[in-house]
Specification:
Low-confidence stretches: 137-192
Order of helices and strands: EEEEEEEEEEE
Helix content: under 10%
Number of helices: 0
Mean pLDDT: 76
Structural class: mainly beta
Strand content: 35-45%
Strand order of the largest sheet: 3-4-1-8-7
Radius of gyration: 21 Å
Shape: elongated
Largest sheet: 5 strands, antiparallel
Length: 192
């Protein structure tokens, strides 16, 4: 069984969207979270979309979705559509956010991303994403997590040379069990 991390995605607003209605002066936009590997969207896809904002190229939603994801997640995909009554909804734009942008920038297991994301082909989507990591994730740059909290073993059960991550050489901090510890030893990638 895979451990699930918590994620709250809030679609705040969008701006400068494509006009898709018959006269090409407006749209009836909504945002949908695309199902991707590692993101848990139980139930119907329609549960993971915002309300439709009628005749607006700068809609405000302010809607949040509380979801879970596991270690297979590599990206989040958000799709903006124009609602159509008599035909299939037309896609206005899309954006992808890579999972490496969800890592905390400081110690701890909580991250908040508040950002305007550029939509392709036109427009921007304002999202706030809050992530609470429940599984240890190796972070880029200076922050690393113990692979297994306080066990000091790697995924194959090998003892690590020092109680911090053995997969990177560092003289930095590591995070384990929600506490921040200082590592005064050089970690080795030669763990046997």
């Amino acid at each position: 069984m895979r451990i699930k991390n918590d994620i709250k995605i809030t679609f705040v607003e969008a701006r400068d969207l494509l006009a898709m209605d018959k006269n090409f002066t407006t749209s009836d936009p909504y945002v949908k979270i695309k199902d991707v590997k590692g993101l848990h969207l139980p139930g119907n896809d329609d549960l993971y979309r915002t309300k439709v904002v009628k005749k607006n190229l700068n809609p405000k939603w302010g809607e949040s979705f509380n979801l879970h994801f596991d270690d297979r997640l590599s990206k989040l995909n958000f799709l903006v559509y124009d609602y159509e009554v008599m035909s299939r909804d037309a896609r206005i734009g899309k954006v992808r956010l890579n999972a490496d942008q969800l890592f905390p920038t400081t110690s701890g297991s909580h991250a908040v991303i508040d950002r305007w994301l550029p939509l392709k082909p036109k427009g921007e989507l304002h999202v706030i994403i809050e992530v609470h990591w429940r599984i240890p994730i190796a972070l880029p740059v200076r922050w690393i997590f113990c692979l297994i909290s306080c066990a000091h073993q790697d995924y194959e059960g090998r003892q690590l040379p020092h109680p911090c991550c053995a997969f990177v050489q560092c003289r930095t901090w590591y995070v384990s069990c929600g506490n921040t510890h200082k590592c005064d030893h050089y970690c080795s990638t030669d763990a046997n």
